[in-house]
Amino acid sequence: MKNLRNWLTTSEISKIFKVNVSTIKRWIDKGFFRVSVTSGGHRRVDPKDFKAFIAKYPKLAGNSYVIKKIIKGKELNKKALNWQNYYIYLYSNSSLNVQNKLEEMFLLNVSVVDILQNVVAPTLVHIGKLWQKGKISIYDEHRMTFLLRMDLLGLEKLISGRIGFGSPTAVLGCVAGDNHEIPLLMLHLLLKQQGYRTVILGINNPASEIIHASRKEYASLICLTQTFSKIRLDSYFDKVYKYAKSSKVWLASGGAGWPITLRKSKKGYRYFDSLSEFNKFSKKLGKPV
Fold first, then answer.
1. Dihedral angle at the C-alpha atoms of 157, 162, 167, 169, nearest 10 degrees?
2. Same domain flag for 60 and 143
3. What's the average pLDDT block by block, 10 residues per block, for the chain (289 residues)?
4. Residue 286 and residue 268: Cα distance in Å, rounded?
5. Which residues, at least 6 apart from 154, have a Cβ–Cβ distance to it below 8 Å?
6. If phi over 0 gives left and psi between -120 and 50 gives alpha, with beta otherwise, what is residue 195?
7. Phi/psi at 37 (nearest 5 deg)?
8. Which pLDDT score is estimated for 281?
9. CB 154 within 8 A of CB 107
10. Which CATH number is 182's domain given?
11. CA–CA distance, 142 with 125 (Å, rounded to integer)
12. Hey, which of 102, 124, 130, 272 has its CA 20 to 30 A from 35?
């Protein structure tokens, strides 16, 4: 039997990376670490394998002085930033136990906004176009979208927010008639790393609910998304904008389905056709703690 005295426990690794023990166990299950098991059934990681892992994933250097010393001077791997490969990964897998590619990109030091704008967003557009043309089934469209959603939730656990007393609050919601929630999750990830507290209302929200939630949560920012909806938004938008303007709350919108007539900026309102633009805007706007 191996001498595991100097091998690392999942608890020790979680403290170095500043993540939950459950995250380390998930990485082990997905093959990030090779482990040996003690006679008591506890998993241990070889220090050599641990060093190889953190050398491969430079993003973790930001969490620990120990890791910074180990990987100092390592080159960053940008090859992970490829939406075509990510689509193939989604199309080829049907199991939630496969390695989370978005987590891997993040650990390879790819920024959250780059992952979302250059990988996730074009992948979603591609899936939508293929389904509209009848080149993939509704089963495949739903399956890949579900896997993508789970990948985003896995990525969310790695993003360290600075939420505390005085942090600004953003209310996020799909407009009435829209049932595409992934854009809300993408906005949540961007805002979380900036220190915003987010309230996600989900799909198909009446204007009255957007206003009610914003008032109740003392929001400083309202984000509306529309990927597809048959409902005319003129009166809907007017109601939310009127509230936002009178309450000095910023209103932001986005999505491929957002009406052209409502994309022009005006006092207290901006439409964004890219996540990078929204990211820059929200950074300046909230001045999170």
1. -20
2. no
3. 66 76 80 78 79 68 46 44 88 70 78 93 95 95 93 85 83 96 96 93 97 97 93 94 96 94 95 95 68
4. 13
5. 26, 100, 102, 103
6. left
7. -110, 130
8. 94
9. no
10. 3.40.50.280
11. 14
12. 102
CA angle 213, 215, 221 (to 5 degrees): 80
In a domain, 164, yes or no: no
Residues 191 and 252 reside in one and the same domain: yes
Query: What is the number of domains present in the chain?
Result: 3
Which ranges in 121-233 belong to alpha helices (H)? 121-132, 138-156, 182-193, 207-216
Which run of H or E residues covers position 6? Answer: none
Q: Which amino acid is at 263?
A: R
Same-domain status, 274 and 200: yes
Tallying the residues shown for the chain, one arrives at 289
Tens-place pLDDT, residues 193-230? 888 999 999 999 999 999 999 999 999 999 999 998 88
Closest CA to 222 of 257, 258, 248: 248
Nearest to 147 by CA among 85, 93, 190, 203: 93
Task: Give the neighbor-by-neighbor strand order of the sheet with 43-45.
Answer: 8-9, 43-45, 35-37
The reported pLDDT for the residue numbered 288 is 36
What's the alpha-carbon Rg for the chain, to the nearest Å? 21
**Assigned domain for 47 exists:** yes
The number of C-alpha atoms within 13 Å of 114 and in the hemisphere containing its C-beta is 13
- The answer to the question of residue 2 being in a domain is no
What tokens were used for 157?
Answer: 């656990």
Backbone angles phi, psi at 253, to 5 degrees: -140, 165
Residue 175 phi, psi (nearest 5): -70, 170
pLDDT in tens, 178-189: 999 999 999 999
Measured between its terminal Cα atoms, the distance across the chain in Å is 51
pLDDT of residue 6: 66
**64 is written with which tokens?**
């620990």
